[in-house]
Write a structure and sequence with these properties.
The chain is α/β, with parallel strands linked by helices and 390 residues long. Helix content is 40%, strand content 18%. The strands form two sheets. The protein has an eight-stranded mixed beta sheet, with helices on both faces. Strands 2-1-3-4-5 form a five-stranded parallel beta sheet, with helices on both faces. Helix 2 packs parallel to helix 3 (69-78), helix 6 packs across helix 16 and helix 10 (243-253) runs parallel beside helix 11.
Length: 390
């Protein structure tokens, strides 16, 4: 579908300086340009909504003729079509959050208004609103959830998840990759994109307010054919993930795709048991060396100590050092007491030299690494999942 040349934005703001700043910032946007229609009170704003169509409404909740939450409620009552973005002062952030929980699409602190940031947030809010309107016609999936947990940091868990997501997508499956982490998320670095919406967006609200539409609107389209929920990028967004939040995100994500692949942090956190309890399989990603064997043994004990036993445990063996005489994979698996789901050959040079935004399974389909991932995708497509047979 061709991109529109211009999107109409209704700004309802009583402070002339704030209104002029918004108009100035948005006047510099490129296609689609954002054309701003300014009204200084709610009555004239509602009249414009009655006679004209807008993609979004930028709304100050405290106006000469209306204050607080009622301002948002009257705008939404007038029209359910445009995205509504609350403009608020720092001290009124709680009120803005209440509006978001009740159906507003976003809120912005006025002091944060700056060139690229403002236009980007408006565009994302508009796209989110469009997806919400379209989602009513989409079929509800009952996707299978697969968790991936590194025996230690740097085991290659994220690389494995993103390549498996791409391989499953190549086979015609719908796939969502979730980066559930309370700290920095590395999806952005791997995929060379950094969407405005991520796990931190969902954590800003209560778990009860996280709907299927909210989760879907935070998913970024990846060129390799799957969608992804990115982890936080800014330190101010780092926050613990409550188990109830993880549970709600997982349940909603499973209605959006055939497969949900969850990239977990190497540390076992409070919400990890939610993934284990909802997953068809939890795969422990282990480097195939003595340190990996020790870390894998400790991590398995830690998982078992959580008391979460519903998911089966599998093993992904990752070779990071080429040309080294390693313990045979069957013996490695025997000592860990786990079935092997994949043995990933060394591909450090290929991964380091990949300058594209595509996972290696797409960029270099001929590589041994890619062949192992495609084989893993085939076995994950069976029910139950079939381990490697020696």
């Amino acid at each position: 579908m061709p991109q529109e040349l211009q999107w109409s934005i209704l700004l309802i703001e009583d402070e002339p300086d704030a209104a002029r700043l918004v108009q100035h910032v948005l006047s510099k946007t490129t296609a689609p340009t954002l054309a701003v229609d300014w009204r200084a009170d709610l009555a004239s704003g509602l009249e414009r909504l009655r006679v004209a169509e807008f993609e979004a409404v930028l709304l100050d909740l405290n106006l000469p003729d209306s204050n607080g939450f009622e301002t948002f409620a009257r705008v939404r009552q007038q029209s359910a079509e445009p995205a509504v973005i609350i403009l608020t002062a720092q001290e009124d952030e709680a009120l803005a959050l209440q509006a978001v929980r009740s159906g507003a699409d976003e809120y912005l602190i006025k002091s944060d208004i700056r060139d690229r940031y403002l236009a980007q947030r408006i565009r994302y809010a508009i796209e989110r609103k469009r997806r919400q309107r379209q989602s009513g016609t989409k079929p509800i999936c009952k996707g299978r959830i697969f968790g991936f947990l590194g025996a230690k940091g740097g085991a290659g868990t994220t690389t494995l998840v993103l390549n498996l997501a791409a391989a499953l997508a190549q086979s015609g499956k719908s796939v969502v990759a979730l980066e559930l982490t309370s700290g920095y998320g590395s999806f952005a670095a791997h995929l060379r994109q950094s969407p405005a919406w991520n796990t931190a967006t969902l954590l800003k609200t209560t778990s009860e307010a996280i709907t299927r539409e909210e989760v879907e609107s935070c998913l970024a389209e990846v060129d390799s054919g799957f969608r992804a929920l990115f982890g936080p990028q800014r330190p101010e967004d780092y926050a613990p993930i409550a188990p109830e939040h993880a549970r709600t995100v997982l349940r909603n994500a499973a209605t959006l795709a055939d497969y949900v692949l969850v990239d977990l942090p190497a540390s076992v956190e409070n919400f990890t048991t939610e993934v284990i309890d909802h997953a068809t399989l939890l795969t422990l990603v282990v480097e195939r060396d003595l340190l990996g064997l020790h870390a894998g043994t400790m991590k398995r004990r830690l998982i078992e100590a959580t008391g979460a036993h519903q998911a089966a445990l599998g093993l992904a063996l990752v070779n990071k050092t080429p040309h080294v005489d390693l313990m045979p994979a069957p013996e490695f698996a025997r000592q860990l007491g786990l079935d092997v789901m994949v043995v990933v050959p060394a591909a450090g040079d290929l991964l380091a030299s990949n300058r594209t935004a595509q996972p290696l399974v797409v960029h270099r389909p001929d590589a041994g690494f890619s062949e192992s991932i495609r084989d893993m995708a085939k076995r994950f497509s069976t029910e139950p999942v079939l381990p490697v047979r020696w």
